[in-house]
Amino acid sequence: MRVLHVANKQLRRYGKTHGNWVEKLAFGLIKNNHYLLTFSERDVAAFEAPWGLRDLGWRKANQRLLEMVEATEPDLVILGHCDKISDDTVREIRRMRPHALLAHVNCDPLFVPSNFNNLKARAAIVDAVFITTGKRDLTPFDGLGARIYHMPNPVDPAMEPLDNSARTDLDIDLLFCSNATKFSTRGVTVQHLKDGLGDSINFKTPGSFGDPPVWGRDYDRTLARTRMALNLNRQEGDYWYTSDRMAQLAGNGILQFTHASQGFQDLLPPESMVYFNDNDDLLAKVREFHHDDARRQAWASRCREFFHAEMNATLYARYIVEATMAQPFSHDYVWARDVRPDGSLK
Question: N or C: at which end does the chain have fewer Cβ atoms within 10 angstroms?
Fold first, then answer.
């Protein structure tokens, strides 16, 4: 199948970023023997704009995308986070390629109003929508036109090659990387831990409390030194929602702590991820695992094995293609055991 993937490839960062779900989807499509074409709309807008001013290039980027569709004749168009590609452009793609399938893949949270509105708009004009929030919380998008599916954040062995669960020579005891504060009070949680733990452990917080963020290879090198980490969302409570931080930590064998309200107990095997209910509970559990390194290793190893076996980029990409085509699933996808190929709940 010829697949055109429209997403932000971050070409102009020149490697100062970390492998993310956009690349993992691309890798997975290729591993499933699809012919992959990519269109990075933000980069094209900057390349085509006068003086490289991206905001002056959106109209041209939309035009270039239509030119690429005409030139390549894709069978499937996957729209990622490309909100500057207008709905009119998507409709024109539909007119140009009436037999092609259109999917929207979205990894952002529903509590961000602009993302929620963008999802509703896309759901009215594509065949399938994939969201990193659990199916039971996706009812606001029912009846808009598209079939609605949950998708996980996957791992890829090329991007998560570490196994820190097998190591005891790691100097960072606890890690939390973030520089996003909008729609969030998670800084209160991190401060609570800092106050409670003091100097008893080596707790690193790049991107917070005046510490510079880490990107690219610096981020990789930081993960390579880490035993345990916090998987804190900007807001907690959306079923099965998390950022791609969860996959980055799990895939590298780093024990992580995540809020119990996300419901990952229903998806992941027992004794693989540490769930907490409030700040005091989190503090107690961090101390507990810090003093029992063998237990830390066992839980992190179990989580890593599960992600690489059942939530990898190859299965992730296959699922997106099969669900978009409403085909019978060729694998028992752990995140879709309660879903039929047409997106309805069993």
Answer: C
Pairing label, strands 147-150, 172-175: unpaired
Residue 213 and residue 140 share a domain: no
Half-sphere exposure of 62 (CA within 13 A, CB side): 14
Rounded CA-CA distance 314/291 in Å is 37
Question: Is the domain of 10 the same as that of 150?
Answer: yes
Strands (E), the chain: 2-6, 35-39, 76-79, 101-106, 128-131, 147-150, 172-175, 203-204, 226-231, 255-259, 274-276
Instruction: Kindly report the CATH number assigned to the domain that includes residue 287.
Output: 3.40.50.2000
Q: What are the tens digits of pLDDT across the range 141-184?
A: 999 999 999 999 999 999 999 999 999 999 999 999 987 666 56
In tens, the pLDDT along 61-90 reads 999 999 999 999 999 999 999 989 999 999
pTM for the complete prediction? 0.94
Return the structure tokens found at 88: 């009119």
